[in-house]
Structure formats: structure tokens, C-alpha cells
Amino acid sequence: MDDHPALSAYNDVQALLKEMNSQSASQKGRLRWILQKKLESDPSCSILLIQVLVKELKKKLKTTCKTQSYVHVIPVLHTIYYVVIQSGGMIPASLYQTVYECLIKLLILPTPYCTVVLSTLRSIKMEMITPGSLYQRRVVAEQNLKSEHLTVQEKVFVLADPAVFSAPLEATVRAHFEAPSSFRNTTTMEKNVVLHVLHTGLGATCQSSRLAQALKALEDHVVEKYFQEVVLTVEQSIKHGPGGYLNKLHDIYRNILTDCREEITKVDHGSLVYGAALPFPEINFQLWRSEEDLWNLLVKFALDCCRNSSTDEEVKDKKGSVQSEDDQKERNPTSVFNRRKAFKNMKPADKITLMREKIEAFPGSSPAFKEDRRRHTARVVVMGDDRVLGTLTRAYCLIRERESKRLVLTKRLDIQFYYIPVTDVEPSSIPPGGPCQDKDRLSLASLLGRVDPWYNSNINSLGAELSKLGRTHSEPSEQNLFLLDSLCYYLRCGKQPVNIPLYSVKMTCSSGDVDEVFVSHLEAEIPEFKHLKENSSKEPSARRKKSTVAVFGTAISVSYTKISLSKREVVKGEAPMTYGVVITSEPAALTSGQDYLSVRFDSVNPIYNTKIQTQNISIRTMEHRTLSVCLDKDSRRRYTDVQRIEISLCLDPGCSFWSRFSVSGEQEQSLSKFLNKVLSLPINTFTGVTL
């Protein structure tokens, strides 16, 4: 570490890891972004940076065996991946081998860390065998470049909660996300792919300036031809082995220079570095006003994918093809899928597909396998607080319910969920009292930050950046692309899901029964006792002036299964003098055990305040009283005149066919053994965790 570049790289990495432990949220994520920009402007530092990162991994490997601390492994792994995919020059095979051997040793780490190691290992191995493949696959997918050799499409949907996003904030964020789309050019993207793959694969034998000038001089259709040849060469190497890969790249390189009939004025003698930063994907930003919006967006994307992919096996199957009903769906994309006749008995092959979807959502399954099996990916980013995750929960249940009756999306799309926490209210400014006025509307963001400190550093801090944009109304520029770059980093590296359990709520109201679902929070109160709740929040001396004991006796009765090893202990009883109940989800990620609900009974008399832990509970009002129920702190999801609520873990509608169909075949039986029938909301993070 004596020379300046090596010392600079070492200091950058150490600062990055130190920032992860910092309590300050104002600058979190900035050092990673600065390092990313430094790499984009000077790709020559990639080899040196990888060497420093590998040394850091080796150091972590030694210390983790003694201290059992693994959190710093995650940022190092993701930084290596990002450096490799962005590197503009040939990385020596010896360095790749060193990285590979180091990652092999790290597979001894416990889950979820070994899962991230394995994912990084597969990416590194692919790039070792086929240099340039990571960049090429990412650009082709994100930019939806058409190629018969790699029929992959991706789309990014950013759904923002209108309860959080004011009109000025919406306009500013939309401008930041959509500005890069106006500069997108297909031919330029194809040239960058050709340049990157050839230079990464051929190294010193590729004169990047000559190649860039030659591509610039060629007509668009000729560039398209060479782009297709590069994609074919890369995909053949990935699928069948690297035999002749570099020779084929050299032939393409020579042919491009030969086809260029113009004089090339600039000649570089074996330039080792060519920098082409990953372009921003197209981002579709909109306010999320209805749960149906997500279904409609995904169905339309699935239909577009079928129309654009001539090799899609779903298109070939006319009997079961979605495309066969295009005319009707273009008028109303969901009409065909919602009508009763569409919900026919599911085919055995579709049942297995839905089971595999459920199994692959479990942490530990490799994203690489899903990428190979599916062609298209929908990346859904939700922005807001706990309320928007409640909206996502309902939309996700709607999707699973419809998919359980007829597969529309599952066979065509890999749906990935991402969450960027944003709130419009400072915690200190929220007054106490009243349902849905919880002081912390970012409880799930806090949970994700605790299970994944790298998420906490890079994503939990973005809410402050968004608020700052809303106040300044600044225009997009190179200087303030931090938000967009951070979103793209999250989309590319956040591959591991945290599965948050969902809870079913059945409410009996005077007007009829209501079925609902919540993910984090349920609050119920007896409206006629609201004045007693307000009185109980006063100072003890003020409360003594009024006798509350004589006001009422038992208001609700409860029945629940107490958390125990046997899971059989059913408790029935009354909750004296209770004016409200607060129920919060406690995922296994934090409890190191099983998912459960924490239930707090608030009583006018503090001696009756109690807390219980359960996975299911039934609450019934007495003496003709009713409850006001609010879900996920969202006043838009408030129900009044509720006489009874029953809460239990939500079962996945996609698994319900096991009760309707007889199980036949060894494959179905073997798959069902690993099937978790509880429905969980999968939110992508950098680490993921087994819940």
C-alpha cells in the first residue's frame, strides 16, 4: 500500500465500511456513490480496487471465525460485483482466480451470507469464462434491446403513495426518474455493448479508439448486425462453454474495422481501458391510487412481452396463449382475466409452476436459476411508509388469488418487489392519540434496516434525499443523480428477499363480513370510550379526580392460541375496562424463532394493561358495542361498526389447490414437502434473511 493509487483505494474501502456503522443518516450511501462515480470516470482503477476488496475479504474471513461478525462481508461482495460489471478493461485471469478461491472459502458462512456469496460466485464465474457477459446481459435486459439470441425484457415500475407525495414532490421526482429516457438511443446502446464486450474480452489487442470510430462511421443496420453477432457469441459461450469465444470476438473486431470505409484518424496502441457506464433503465413513475393498478401494469407488460418475443413458447401455444386475445385486452387489459369463464381448473403443469414460484421465493434459492428459466422481469418499486406496504400487501394478495385460478403472470414474469421508505411527517410532529397516528410510520423500514445494515446505509437514507428534492425543486443534473444512481444500484444488487409474513383479518360488521389483510399493524378502539383513552393519557394526578372503575366493566372478550412449544394452548377470557387493542407483527427475522403477533390491550385502569404473543386471535365486543379498526396505520383503510375480528396467518391462495385437487405424481408430492403455505410479502434487500 505504498503507492498513492493503492492507498487511495484502500482508504475508499475502509471509509465505505466505516460509514456502514455510522449513526448519522445524512450522508449514508454517499461514499458508495462517490466510489461508483470514480470507477465510471476512471475504469483503470478497477483492477486495483478488486485487489483491495479481495484482501479485505480475506481479512474478514479470518476475523469472522473468531468474532462471528459478518455484516461487512455484504458491502464488499456487492462492491466486487459492481466493479466487475463496470470494469472497462480485461481483468487478469489470475485475479479472477484469486477472487473465485476466496469466495469458495466464504461459503462456510451461515445463511443468509453464504447465499449472497454463492450469487456473487456464479456471477464471477460467468465473467471469468465469458468476459463482458454481465454487462451485455444487464444492458440488453434493462434497455429491452431486441435480440433473438437473448429474449429478455425488464421493466421498472415505481409506485408512489399519494398520501406521502405532494404535487411538487411528485413533479420533481418524476422529472429526475424520467429525464434519462429522453436521451436513450438504441443504436448507441448497441455500440456500447459491442465496445464493452470486445474490449473486455480482447484487452490489449483491442484498440478502443479505432473501434469506437469505426462503429460511429457504420450505418445503423450494420451496427445492429454486429450487435447481434456479439450477443450470439456471448450466449453460446455461456450455454455451451468458452470454446473459441475469444477467436470469435477477434473476428468480429476485425470485420468491423474492415467494414469501416472512412479513414480513422485516431489510433491508440493497445489501450487497456474503455469506460461505458451502465445506462439508466427506463423508469415508469406514477402515483399509486388503486391496488388494481399493479395488476393492470403487469398484465400489460406480460402482453407486450408476448408480442415482442417471437420465440416465446407461450405465443406458440395458441390454445393457451394470451396473445390470441390481444384485441379484447387492448381495450381492457384485465377484462379477459377477470371474467368467470377464465377461472378454469388449473393444469397439472401450471400447478407445479406455481409451487416452484413459491419455493424459489424462499431465501437461499439462486436468482441465477430464475433468470435462466424466465425471460422477463418486472421490478416493482414502492415508495412511501408503512401505509404503502399495506397497499402492496393487498395488491399482492389479489395477484396470488387470481394466479391460483389461472396462471397469467407467473409463467411469463419474474416479479421482484423493492421498497424505498419515504414519509411526509417528522416523527416528533405527530400528536399522540387516535388510531393510525402512530409515532413511527416507518416500522418496516426499520426492520429491514436491522436485518440488512447495507440496506439501511443505502436505501433507508433516500427518504431524506427525496424530501430535499421536494423542497429545492432542483432540475436533474450530473451533480444530483445520487437518487437515480442509488435506485439503479438497489435494482441491480438487491437480489435477496426478506419475506414478511402477512395476516388475514376477518371482520364481522353490521353491514356484512369483510375480508382484509395486513402486514405490520392493526389498531382497534371502542369509539364511545375515546374520551377515556384521552383521560388515561393525562398525568396520574389528573386521572384521580374522576373514578373510571364505575364507568364500564368488560368491553371485549378474546380467544387466542398462546405461543408455546405445543402450539395447542388456547386461552379464552375477557379484557376488563379495555378501550383499545394494538396488534403488531413480529417477524422471525427479529425474534430468531417463529412469526407471531404482539397484542397490547389498553385499559383505562393500568393494572389491566396486558401484552400477549400469538399467531391467531379472535376479539368480540360485548353489550352491543362496536370497534373502529385501522390497518397498517392507514386512515384510508379504516372500518367502523365492527363487532368481531379474527386474525390469523394468511395462507397463500396459490397453495389452495391442494385442498381442491387430489395430489398425484411423485414430482408434486416431493415439491409439496418444501412448500410453506403461509403467504409472505417478499421485499428485496442486499442480504435477505430466512424468516
Describe this structure in words.
There is one protein chain. The protein is α+β, with helices and mostly antiparallel strands. The protein folds into four domains: 1-130; 152-180 and 279-293 and 346-498 and 653-691, no CATH class; 186-259, no CATH class; 503-649, Tumour Suppressor Smad4 (Sandwich). Helix 3 packs antiparallel against helix 4. The longest helix is centred in the N-terminal third of the chain and has 22 residues, at 46-67. The chain is elongated, with a radius of gyration of 28 Å. It starts with a helix and ends in a 6-residue tail after the last strand. The model is unreliable at 269-273, 311-331, 333-344, 363-372, 427-435, 542-551 and 658-664 (pLDDT under 50).
What is the gist of this entry?
With 691 residues, the protein is of the alpha+beta class. The protein is built from 28 helices and 16 strands. The chain folds into 4 domains: 1-130; 152-180 and 279-293 and 346-498 and 653-691, no CATH class; 186-259, no CATH class; 503-649, Probable inorganic polyphosphate/atp-NAD kinase, domain 2 (Tumour Suppressor Smad4), CATH 2.60.200.30.
